[in-house]
Amino acid sequence: MVTALLRTFMRLAFVVLLLTGCTAERPSDEQWEHSVLGSYAAAYSADGKYALVGDTDSPAKLWDLENNKVVYSWQNRPEEAGTTTAVAISEDSKVAATSEQDVIVLWDMSNGRPMIRLRFPVKIKSMALSKHGDYLLMALYDRTAVYFDVIENRVVKIFEHDGKAVNSPINQLINAVAISPDGKQILTGGDDQTARLWDIETGKELQQWKHTNAVNIVSFYPRGGYAYTGAGNGHTHFWNLKTGKKKYTLRSSPWPKDMALPDFPVFQTTTSAIDYSPDYKYIVTGHPSRRLCVWAVASGENKQCWQVARRQALRPGVVLQAVSFSPDGRSIYSESGNGIGQMWKIK
């Protein structure tokens, strides 16, 4: 018994030593200042050509990545530039959306003109656009998620997270939303520590997955059938949508795969951004710890991780707000809350 405990202790000590310094800062191949004061939100277009950055106290900016220049500057309120708190781009890269508190404007990316201006009775926390930008999914601060028909200007469905999972008598705040590639399902993640899969047409809940903390990110795998969900200060999981079963958990630590991950903070990393390679074989994740990681979709195996640069040495916190593979899959882009855009060639 003593020998077994000693071996376990030594194994744990070895892994803890490996964890220190396992992720190093890596110089980027290209770096740009995309915001002077920093940003609250960012998104990349699916075609890899643009980055939409929601600046703090100034108009949102659509950046041409190849030429590193501002294509359009957008503000929702004509009388003054407000802080853009959420952004989104349709999958066909034709429609962009910017949110300032309770106002959303949809923009035509071909000419920069506003298509429609929507004002809601409550503030918007996060949002997603359908493939062609004709539907809008919003997480609102009234603890609902609203699926909205932009063309007909009407609410299609309202989704809610009851508090049963956390033994609460009231509905819980919804933090993250996503629309499936075929437009038939949505994902929501909330403070009740659950991610939920819904049928848009019927409004029926199809799956529910419990996490250890509030769910802050949800994403459909582009080829269908699977989804990623992640909790703040928790783990990110890959789920089979049909069976509801978990295929794997993303593990960037060298902790042995035959052992369950301990409930220690060092093993738990918030995922704040995600994207898929053009061939759908890899994903890249961004984290508030200024870390980027690349994974194999088939197995969840961690291929590499590195840290992005700080803007100032005395301001160590850097949240990765958006990540993207280049169109040829050979590079990775990132947008950080410190206003810095970066690019790395994959080695």
In short:
The chain is mainly beta and 347 residues long. It has one domain (25-345): Methylamine Dehydrogenase, Chain H (7 Propeller).
Shape: globular
**What is the H/E string?**
HEEEEEEEEEEEEEEEEEEEEEEEEEEEE
Ends: how far apart?
46 Å
The major sheet is characterized as: 4 strands, antiparallel
Enumerate how many helices there are, as a single number. 1
Please name the fourth-level CATH homologous superfamily. Answer: YVTN repeat-like/Quinoprotein amine dehydrogenase
Weakly predicted, low-confidence segments: 1-21
By CATH reckoning, the class would read: Mainly Beta
| Rounded radius of gyration (Å) | 20 Å
Architecture (CATH level 2) name: 7 Propeller
- Average pLDDT works out at 89
Task: Bin the helical content.
Answer: under 10%
Number of strands: 28
Tell me what the structure shows:
- This protein is mainly β and 347 residues long.
- It is built from one helix and 28 strands.
- It has one helix at 2-19, and strands spanning 30-33, 39-44, 50-55, 60-64, 69-74, 86-89, 95-100, 103-108, 114-119, 124-129, 135-140, 144-149, 154-160, 174-179, 185-190, 194-199, 205-210, 215-220, 226-231, 236-240, 246-249, 273-276, 282-286, 291-296, 302-307, 320-325, 331-336, 340-345.
- The chain has a four-stranded antiparallel sheet with strand order 1-28-27-26, with no helix packed on it.
- Strand 3 (50-55) and strand 4 form a beta hairpin.
- The longest helix has 18 residues, at 2-19.
- The N and C termini lie far apart (46 Å).
